[in-house]
Fold:
Amino acid sequence: MIGRKPGLSVLILLMLAGIQCATRSATEPPRDILGIGIGMTRADVQKRLEEIAFFERSERKNQQVWRLKDDPHYSHLAVGYDANNQIRYITAFADKAKTQIPFSDIGNLSKAKKEIIEQHHTYVWEVPATGASPAYFVNVYGDNPKFLTTCSLSKKSTPNKSEAEEEEEED
Structure:
């Protein structure tokens, strides 16, 4: 019996490694960017941003731009709030001088809607609502076929309402 234990241990380790590799290759799109997700309140977002970034400026339509303090991939974040002061979108801007992020690190590319027009590569995942988390889109763009330039999470529009109508409500 003692002679079988090492063989069994090796088999279990190989099975666990196989499960881990299968999980890694079936990456689900992110639920947040640097701890900020769709539907978070302005107060919670501001607290998180003050930990990781410096405020740069406010833009129209309830939007802000922040410069990250020390992120290995991104230089800036843009956030937009809805009429209820909750995150409606967050966009991270890659810093090409830092470690670049492959599109495949964001999600399973075979599950994304693809739009590739010479030098412009876009992948979009639609993420359904789960529990208290609302449905949203993950959109990555890059001018390189392998690496992203921006990564965005954005709230799905309310049915029967155009994006323009929602933006008017936020003014």
Summary: The longest strand covers residues 74-81. DSSP finds three helices and eight strands in the chain.
